[in-house]
Specification:
The chain is of the alpha/beta class and about 120 residues long. The chain has four helices and four strands, in the order E-H-E-H-E-H-E-H. Strands 2-1-3-4 form a four-stranded parallel beta sheet, with helices on both faces.
């Protein structure tokens, strides 16, 4: 098995509603990607953490992990915090290969979503 695990990571929140909305996104990606190896993780406050999910994956035959930040822009969490978390995990899991995707960022679909919100209020 040479499957890749996908970990979608957000900041984490005390809000149950925010966590439920994040889990909805994770489960929707899992269904559309058609893989059981899509997970959600939180940087802080909520569980599971990135380390929790990596530990779970390390007990499988998966060797590649793609971490996708569920953030809009290249702020501190993207440029510093998440890469540092990954670097701290690498020595603990030398058989795993980590990659990190770009944040959601400047995608044209984001403007379409905002236009949809505007249309719903007018």
């Amino acid at each position: 098995m040479n499957a890749q695990a996908i970990i979608i990571i957000d900041h984490g929140s005390k809000s149950v509603t925010a966590t439920e909305e994040f889990n909805f996104i994770v489960n929707t990606v899992k269904k559309k990607y058609n893989s059981p190896h899509v997970y959600g993780a939180h940087m802080e406050i909520s569980t599971p953490s990135l380390g929790d999910i990596v530990r779970q994956i390390s007990n499988t035959q998966i060797k590649k992990i793609l971490i996708i930040p569920y953030f809009l822009f290249n702020g501190r969490h993207i440029l510093k915090d998440i890469p540092q978390m990954i670097e701290e995990l690498k020595p603990q899991y030398p058989s795993l290969h980590f990659n990190m995707a770009a944040p959601i960022g400047k995608e044209e679909q984001m403007a379409d979503i905002l236009l949809k919100r505007i249309a719903n209020i007018e």
